[in-house]
Design a protein that fits this description.
alpha/beta, Rossmann fold
């Protein structure tokens, strides 16, 4: 069976899950192709596969903005099987259930919805520190180990054609609705990005990994932020010297830890190669 998987990754959690899922499924004799939803969207051939899947981080009980845009524009499914696997640090609400309804109207057989807990990557000012704290050391290892164990079960269920619909409970539905209703609060953070000039080494990585071309580099190396931020926090987390800030409070990078990804082998997806 040929399986095409689309994904969006911010700091590498989703990419790691996709790469491991590809290995698991191919070890069972299936052919799997991965498509990063911004760089590879034009290559995502849904007609040339037996099954379509999407892996994504959950933001406020929704997939990331670029994936939402892509899903709304997907062609008719004509009964093609489709699975959705989200990941987040805690609560996914009814994310999968909502998109099951949307995609079924397009004619897809959305047969499997699930999520996997991964480390948080958004340790920023004014979020509850006891929940949104980037894990380190043994805690990080435990989260990643449990995630891999869950992924093994998810892949087995998908390959066996098992049907699962996560997010049907009252708490999931109500929580998902409330998160989407108040996700506008994230807009408060978007215009508050800046770069500490003393830390900045002018490597241009923030410019290259931004999925919306929200970052530009002026003559002399000055980093400028536009108004197209989607709060993916790639620039904030992946800056090698933690020079990208979300308000001046985040200068304290011991309190507001940056998440560098689940492993050294997982590199950021770069959208622009030159400045």
């Amino acid at each position: 069976m040929r399986i095409n998987i689309g994904y969006f990754t911010s700091t590498g959690n989703t990419l790691q899950l996709c790469l491991k899922a590809k290995d698991i499924m191919e070890s069972q004799g299936h052919e799997v192709e991965l498509y990063e939803i911004i760089k590879d969207r034009a290559k995502f051939d849904q007609d040339g596969c037996d099954m379509v899947g999407f892996f994504y981080p959950v933001w406020g009980s929704n997939p990331p903005d670029p994936l939402v845009e892509y899903l709304f524009k997907m062609p008719e499914g004509n009964g093609k099987k489709l699975f959705l696997v989200g990941n987040c640090a805690a609560f996914t609400g009814d994310t999968g259930l909502r998109w099951k309804k949307i995609l079924e109207k397009k004619g897809y057989d959305v047969f499997y919805l699930d999520h996997i807990v991964m480390p948080t990557n958004i340790n920023i000012p004014w979020l509850p520190e006891d929940i949104w704290k980037v894990p380190q050391g043994e805690k990080l290892k435990r989260i990643l180990l449990r995630a891999e164990e869950k992924l093994q079960k998810v892949c087995a269920a998908i390959l066996n054609g098992e049907r699962k619909v996560e997010g049907k409970g009252l708490i999931s539905r109500l929580g998902g609705y409330m998160q989407r209703k108040f996700y506008w609060t994230a807009d408060w953070y978007k215009p508050r990005f800046s770069v500490d000039k003393e830390r900045c080494i002018k490597c241009g990585l923030c410019y290259r990994v931004c999925p919306t071309e929200n970052i530009s580099i002026k003559e002399g190396g000055e980093v400028v932020f536009d108004k197209k931020c989607i709060l993916c926090v790639k620039c904030y987390n992946l800056c090698p010297v933690n020079a990208v800030l979300i308000t001046k409070k985040s200068l304290n990078d011991k309190k507001y830890r940056r998440y560098k990804g689940p492993s050294l082998e997982i590199k950021p997806v770069e959208y622009r190669s030159k400045i």
